[in-house]
């Protein structure tokens, strides 16, 4: 009888569902990644960009116990790497973003609604937290994802406001030129699978 109970316990234990959270893949962000911020002033448009990502941050993709995709990891961007193609505008932006007190812009991935299959381009939504100038905000972003043989390219854009982060838009030459509150953040992340 003890043998029969032992066999039943073994069979029931072997029928337990596999923990899907363990199927995690690791992705390293490539230096070809970039972030662009587009805005307008009372007289023209401006664009500031971080054109290279010199770090090697890792992003993890897995499934949680409810079978939802989890995209986790943090990108740490140096605020001083923004270039506005104008020394004065770059200096104003860095001052506005309080670069001397908060030198890093952090983007933390929280989730993805789904992951497309290999060799496929599609649109998905995901949640991120952005820490800028000491203020943390959560956004839902729509990504275009291109997956192909060990590479993932994430492209997307998100409208944010300086005021979302308790910042006052930059001013140039006194009050004559002033940036508007709204910005469009465009990003391109290229990630390579590890292992």
UniProtKB/TrEMBL annotation:
InterPro entries cross-referenced by the UniProt entry: TTHA0802/YceI-like_sf (IPR036761)
Q: What is the protein name given in its UniProt record?
A: YceI family protein
Instruction: Note the Gene3D superfamilies from the entry.
Output: Lipid/polyisoprenoid-binding, YceI-like (2.40.128.110)
Species of origin reads Pedobacter psychrodurus
Q: Which domain of life is it from?
A: Bacteria
């Amino acid at each position: 009888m003890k043998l029969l109970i032992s066999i039943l316990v073994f069979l029931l234990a072997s029928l337990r569902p596999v923990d899907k959270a363990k199927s995690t893949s690791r992705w390293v962000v490539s230096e070809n990644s970039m972030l662009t911020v587009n805005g307008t002033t009372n007289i023209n448009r401006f664009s500031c960009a971080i054109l290279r990502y010199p770090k090697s941050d890792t992003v993890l993709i897995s499934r949680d116990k409810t079978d939802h995709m989890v995209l986790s990891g943090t990108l740490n961007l140096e605020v001083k790497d923004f270039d506005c193609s104008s020394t004065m505008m770059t200096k104003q932006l860095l001052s506005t973003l309080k670069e001397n007190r908060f030198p890093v812009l952090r983007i933390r991935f929280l989730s993805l609604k789904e992951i497309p299959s290999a060799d496929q381009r599609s649109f998905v939504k995901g949640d991120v937290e952005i820490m800028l100038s000491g203020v943390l905000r959560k956004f839902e972003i729509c990504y275009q994802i291109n997956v192909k043989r060990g590479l993932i390219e994430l492209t997307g854009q998100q409208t944010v406001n300086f005021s979302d982060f308790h910042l006052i838009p930059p001013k140039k030459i006194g009050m004559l030129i002033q940036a508007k509150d709204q910005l469009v953040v465009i990003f391109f992340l290229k990630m390579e699978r590890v292992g």
